[in-house]
Specification:
single chain, 4 strands, about 170 residues, alpha+beta
Length: about 170
């Protein structure tokens, strides 16, 4: 009777609020997507033969099927990986990293590919869109991101055989 209608009304209200909340976040998602596409589109293949060779060696050592494309971008300040289906490493066009620092930074970015972070990152991203109202969501996303980066740092330190404090100076 009345109780059932009240429960249905509350459920319908929650669903409506959820849809409104997700649609309010859609413009930000679209802006982020367009920014990423622009970064990839405007980036150019790097001419740094040493960096390309290092990328190929490190990719093989990590067991990646193939080395990702290495693109130079004037619009970023630090290296990053982009693209879950066709990943590329975006490298700052005006990078002032030494050869050792570049190796460490590249190892970190390739670790994201080895771990499958770009694909598995969709899970918390979708959860954030669906459960935007949950009070623990921000904390969980921050913890996920910190642990993901720590795992890539650990893999980079292990593969490059460097002391953690040397790696820490790069950060």
């Amino acid at each position: 009777g009345n109780r059932r209608r009240a429960v249905q009304a509350v459920a319908a209200g929650c669903a409506t609020q959820s849809c409104i909340g997700m649609s309010m976040r859609k413009p930000k998602l679209i802006r982020e997507h367009l920014r990423t596409r622009r970064l990839r589109r405007d980036a150019r293949s790097t001419a740094d033969a040493e960096l390309l060779a290092r990328c190929a060696r490190q990719s093989r050592a990590l067991g990646l099927r193939q080395a990702p494309a290495l693109l130079a971008s004037p619009d970023i300040a630090s290296p990053q990986v982009s693209g879950s289906m066709h990943p590329v490493v975006l490298w700052p066009a005006s990078s002032a990293l030494s050869a050792d620092e570049a190796s460490l930074a590249l190892a970190h970015e390739l670790a994201h590919l080895k771990r499958g972070d770009l694909l598995s990152g969709w899970i918390p991203a979708l959860a954030a869109r669906m459960f935007f109202f949950h009070p623990l969501l921000r904390w969980a996303r921050r913890e996920y991101a910190l642990n993901r980066e720590a795992a890539c740092d650990a893999l980079a330190v292990e593969r490059q055989c460097v002391a953690p404090q040397d790696y820490g100076q790069l950060l």
